[in-house]
Structures are given as C-alpha cells and as structure tokens.
Amino acid sequence: MRYVIIGTSAAGLAAAETIRQRDRQGGITLISDEPHLPYSRPLLTYLLGREVDAEKIFLKSHDYFDRWGFEPRLGAPVLKVKPESREVHLEGGETVLYDKLLIASGASPRLLGIPGEDLAGVYTLRNLADVENLEKGLPPGGSVAIVGAGAVGLKAAEALIRRGNRVTLLEAESRPLPHLLDQTAAGLLHQVLTSLGVESHFGVRPVGLMEKKGRLNGLLLDNDNTVTADAVIIAVGVRPRNEFLAGTGLDRPEGIPVSPFMETGHRHIFAAGDCACAPHFLTGEPAAYRIWPAAVAQGEIAGANMTGAGRRYDGILPRNSISLKGVKIIAGGLLEPDGKDGEVFNELDRSRGHYRRLVFQNGCLVGVTLAGPKAADAGIYFQIMARKVPVKDLPVDIRSAAFHPGKLWA
Ligand SMILES: Cc1cc2nc3c(=O)[nH]c(=O)nc-3n(C[C@H](O)[C@H](O)[C@H](O)COP(=O)(O)OP(=O)(O)OC[C@H]3O[C@@H](n4cnc5c(N)ncnc54)[C@H](O)[C@@H]3O)c2cc1C
User: Quick one: pLDDT band at residue 409, thresholds 50, 70, 90?
Assistant: First the structure.
C-alpha cells in the first residue's frame, strides 16, 4: 500500500504515525513545501518574543523519518493532485503515486487586498520563515502595527512588546478576540493589553499602506486617520491551503468538506486539520476548528481510516486559551446559545479580575468563559460539556457562586 500525506505538521504527523502503528509494511511518503523538520506553530510567537530558543520549537529529531520508515520530501511544493490517476505532482517535475492520499496542508494567512501589501515591512505570521523574515526586517525598538486582534495578533503583540517594540493593535470589530469572547471578557483582556503598553483601536480597518522610499511607513484607516509604523503584521485570519486541488471540487473557500470518517468526496482521498471542514462537536455542522489538538485528533482518525479502521470523528470540544501578563482567559464551546432554549449566566468580580460566563442550551452546558484565578477550574466545565449531561442531573448547581469543582464527581 502506498500512503501519501501532504503536510508534515500536526495533522500529517498524527496520521503518519497512526498508519505506521497499524501497517508496518506500507510505504508512507510525507510531503511539505517547508524545508525544516516538523516544528510547533504555537511556539512561533514565543520564538519571536525570544522566550524560547530556535532549537526548542522542533518536534522531531533528524532521525525521525528513518526511525518511523517514512519517506520525506521536504521543500517540495505540491502543484497538483490528479485523483483520476492517483498522482501528486511536485514542483521540479516529480510525480508521486498513491493508493491513499491525505491532504493535511493547513492554512495560510489571509491578506487585506489593499494597496501596498507588497511593500518591504509588511509581514504575516504563520511559518518559521515568517519569524525569520521578521527577525531580519524588524527595526530594533521600532513601531509595529498589528492588523487583527485574534489569537495570533494578540500573541504577536505580547512578543513584540517583550522585544522592546512599540505596538499598535487595529481591529475591525469592537473588541479583541471578537469570535471567542463576549464584551466583558474582552474588556478584561483590553485592560491587560493597555497595561502591557499596547495601543488598541477597535472598529477600524486599514484601507491603504503608505510608503516612504519603497518601505512601509504607515497605514491609512477607513476613519481617515493614519497610524505611522515601521512594520505591519497582518493577522486577520487564515484560509485553507487547497490551491493545488483546483479542478477536483475540493478547493472550497471554507475548507475541504469531509465526512465523519475524514473522507473527501473523492475515493482514496482524506483530509484533516486546518484545511478541512469536519463536524463540530456541539452542533454537528461542518466547521473549521483551526487549533492544534483538533488537527491531531483529525489526523489520527484519518490515518486509522486510511488503513481501513472505519473510525468515526465526532469533533472535539473547541477550546482556546490566552495568557497575557499572567492573566489567563479560557473560552470554549459556543459563545452564544444556538437557538430559543438558550440561557447565559455571568458572574463578574472586577476587583479580583475574575469572570465566569456559562452558556446553556436545552439544559446542557455548551459554552464557558473563565478569566482570572477561576481559569484554573476550566477542566471541570469542559468535562461537563463533553459529557453533554443536563445540568439538572448534576449533584450541585454549577451556577452557584459557591460552586467549587471539587464538589462534582469528587
Ligand atoms: C502563530 C500561531 C500560533 C498558534 N497558537 C496556537 C495555540 O496556542 N494553540 C492551538 O491549538 N493552535 C494554535 N495555532 C494553530 C495551529 O498551529 C494550527 O491549528 C495547526 O498548526 C494546524 O495543523 P495542520 O497540520 O492542519 O496544518 P499546518 O500546521 O498549517 O501544516 C500544514 C503543512 O502543509 C504544508 N503545505 C501546505 N500546502 C502545501 C503544498 N502545496 N505542498 C507542500 N506542502 C504544503 C505547509 O507548508 C505546512 O507545513 C497557532 C497558529 C499560529 C500560526
């Protein structure tokens, strides 16, 4: 059996190792356009902020591919997949044949589509090469504008403050992490950003990037204001990497649609990770999770099923956490109830920086946000959500201010 996997990151590696555990003989080819050994993308901002050394971000050692009996093709961009002849075409002319193919090609940063994005001094932050470019190009102590107050933009802001840069954060919505946090939790986060020295502007969009002598020197905003900056990082989200699937019907803008078995609409082709659209744990609707643990979980299922296991993926509970200046915020599940039978419970203690927000749907806990000291209790709320138990059946009222996780399933 010839297994071919496009992508050597969270999803691709999880799949490859699962296949090898189940099939000792099959050939497994791992393809990546990146030349490096596999590394941790979540550690990139820590590398940028000089909190970790470069060698610490690598997940595997030099003998990894040999030990697992994998055939790597690193620094080898895939140009085309031809499902009818089961071929993968690489830049440079090589054609790799497969019996089973996994697409684990991840995502790439979305751009703004405004004039000036090709100027020197304009960056994105997705790959190790992006951090290397920022290392080379960022003026020490210079001013950096970050467009997008999502998780990557916020982590980049903290890293740059650590490096001694001045940071301006620009966000089109009215608050940071607008898709994960409600106004109150986002307000707490905004306070932390301000105390870090980040200048934040909400409800604004850049409409043009300004240049001086061929380099970026500022941004023009849709409210006619300008922001001067020596560099800009565009962090407005990602789009699935599926350009090499043109003509197959799999290159959908929202991601490659997959069944609960991680199969695409083409026989013998599976997809997993940030490039895929798999069922959401709570809603069952197709969703792009775009977090590392989901990519690993999907990769494991895809790998097992490529060897014929028939395992089902029911989604994992989406969970995000951000920790800035020692203040931790954890959010997971749904931000708002998804229908008529919904209810939201809020508890805020401003003096202690403590916030607890619980979202209920049809009597079950479906969303949680915890900020401050109570974030340490997140595990128990995620267990309640994962078990999908009606809260009335729990031995204690989780809404009560006196609720303590130790009282549940102690
Ligand atoms: C800065 C940053 C911080 C993050 N922090 C967190 C975090 O704290 N927690 C968390 O859960 N998630 C985090 N994420 C998200 C997480 O990294 C992704 O969800 C995860 O990497 C997805 O894994 P993947 O295997 O699907 O794809 P990717 O990691 O994107 O890997 C896909 C691989 O396929 C390769 N590839 C793509 N197209 C081709 C082609 N045509 N030919 C050859 N190779 C190709 C790519 O170059 C890449 O190496 C972060 C992401 C970033 C960028």
Answer: low
Distance of alpha carbon 341 from alpha carbon 329, whole angstroms: 27
Q: Whose CA is nearest to atom 17 of ligand 1?
A: 41
Domain containing residue 360: 326-407
- Mean pLDDT across the chain: 94
Contact 333, 365 (CB under 8 A): yes
Here the CATH number for the domain that contains residue 54 is 3.50.50.60
What distance in angstroms lies between residue 369's CA and the mean position of ligand 1's atoms?
A: 25
Would you tell me the crossing angle of helices 183-196 and 151-163 to the nearest 10 degrees?
A: 20
Which sign does the torsion angle of CA 214, 219, 221, 226 carry? negative
Q: Which atom of ligand 1 is the closest one to the Cα of 38?
A: 49
Nearest CA to ligand 1 atom 20: 292
337 and 352 assigned to the same domain = yes
Question: What amino acid is encoded at 398 in this protein?
Answer: I
Q: Which residues line ligand 1 (CB under 6 A)?
A: 6-12, 31-34, 41-42, 44-45, 77-78, 104-107, 125-126, 152, 155, 241, 244, 273-274, 290-293, 295
Q: Which residue owns the Cα nearest ligand 1 atom 26?
A: 273
Is residue 56 assigned to a domain? Answer: yes
Q: How far is the CA of 126 from the centre of ligand 1 (A)?
A: 7
- Residues 305-355: pLDDT tens digits? 999 999 999 888 888 999 888 889 999 999 998 777 899 999 998 888 889
Where is the domain boundary, 195, 210, 234?
234
Which tokens belong to 302? 């895809």
The predicted-structure confidence for 127-174, as pLDDT tens digits, reads as follows: 999 999 999 999 899 999 999 999 999 999 999 999 999 999 999 999
Quote the number of domains for the chain: 3
